[in-house]
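Two records follow; treat each independently.
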Amino acid sequence: MGACGKSSASESHASAASDKKVVIYTNADEEPVNVIKKVLDTNGYKNKYVLQSFGTSELGGKLLAEGKHIEADLVTMSTFYLDSAQKKSQLFKPLKLAATPLTKVPDFEAPMTTQEGVIFYNTKALKEANLPVPKSLAELADSKYKGQLSISDIKHSSTAWLLFQALIEQYGENKTKTILKGIYQNAGDHIEESGSGPLKKVRVGEVALGFGLRHQAVKDKQDGLPIDYVEPTEGTYSLTESLAVVDKGKKTNPAAEKMLNLIVTKGRKELIKDYPSALYQNESTQGLEIAKDQKVFAKKLTPELLKQHAELAE
């Protein structure tokens, strides 16, 4: 009798969890969010989830502060934050992935996209300002670009960290401080909270050039906007964003992992067009605009390292 009672109690827990809408927290840009919605809506999950968007630092703070009390069932986030949250509170459950990642990843993570940074410019605005196309990130510190540059704020956006990583790796921290001083002076009031903010300003010609997300600049150029981009001589640095399911024990919503696998198996076909880096076996980047000099920072990325690098901007 007791055993039967336990069984029915756990079954009611499971059915209660599965009846609830899956809460998805994401720091992703507009493109991946649209892919997630499309994949879920067309594969039986329309109106069965609630998706909430956050800035990277805001969501990272929630993961680290709230732990297993977080409302989210499924999270898409910068991988280094997921790693840190797992280390702190064993926040995520082991996954049974429906696809095989190309590189060894922890059992609680499913890679979703690779984010890359690039210099981009408004071809008309740059010509009107009689400015040359910069070849390197270090050149962005040249005073001739004063008032014509936009970047994102490293305190709010991990996109800015790609700029910092490239400078630190190539020039060391001391020289990077000097370069950043020039970059920040040139950007002035055009330091944006979101990673896509600089391109929005460059699109309308409010400033001539910026540093931001490579895939967005590539798409603008392909769409016929007066936007072009240049791979900086320091290399194109990247970081990954991944999916994870929050481990809530018996209250874990079983639909969350099913949704995660749908995004991995069906969503990646769309995502790779915007973020042209293969992450799983049998993925092809043929015919896509791939950065020629892809790089990753030599040290393991952590929130602590991000904070340390952000201090260079003070």
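The next record belongs to a different protein.
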Amino acid sequence: MTEVKTFVGGGGLAKRTRAVLTALSGAEAGRVLPLSLTSQVSFGRDESCSYSFADGSLSRVHALVVFVAGEYMLKDEGSTNGSFIDDHRVAKVGRMHDGCRVQLGNSLSFRFSLVTEEEEQALRRVYEAAMTDGLTGLFNRKHTDERLGAELAFALRHGSPLSVVLVDVDFFKRVNDTHGHPAGDAVLRAVSRTMAQQLRAEDVLGRYGGEEFLVVARGTAKEEALRIAERLRASVAASPIAFEQIVIQVTASFGVSSIACCAAPATREALVKLADERLYRAKDTGRNRVVGT
């Protein structure tokens, strides 16, 4: 971005390179959201927003951030639960200043910062280290659990479906014992890429531990989740993995559960437990299969 000389905070002249909002709370904590000098940035539940969040306290289009006359302004779009700058509710439009706290709805909060390109990259590295698995680049278990909790709360509040798919690579110990741990690492990375390519942008895919993965399928009933799992199973089985001078063929087993499968009210723990039980039923009945009952 071209550096801009502009008046900041009603005071003197300052050199500004870029502006960001850094999420302070919830499953998105640490996420860095760049703002624009040339166009408005929208926030809300609707997927058409520049930044959308599965937070039931947000309106569909909750607020806008616009750059006007050298200032970043927060504009509330008539939201139900309000927009706030440093705990003061924004009636229509409020000016943001470097370091201020911005809250949207009841619980989604951010820190507004004016940063250099290097500072923005450093913020992103901190976020990525906190949320991703170092080997596969997928979400780590902590972040996956947080996202599942947020998606479940949203689904229960709005009466929408939600499913999870628990995945386990078949005979993974055999791969490590036969070819060594570097080969096992290559298998996990390849399986991760194969599954990620088959999922929608709104789905969450995380490494859940060892050779296990968890898919959180937003707005998806069990029947569709079974089809997603079968697509993933077929893709993994059809994707041999080249490692050094060998080719490794692997398969995976899948357990599927959904809100409708659980006693009301569904919990994160109940969803994962049921998917885990069905996964092990898939393992016990021959592997390389999907079980959803």
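Discussion point: The radius of gyration is 22 Å. How would you locate this feature using only the token line?
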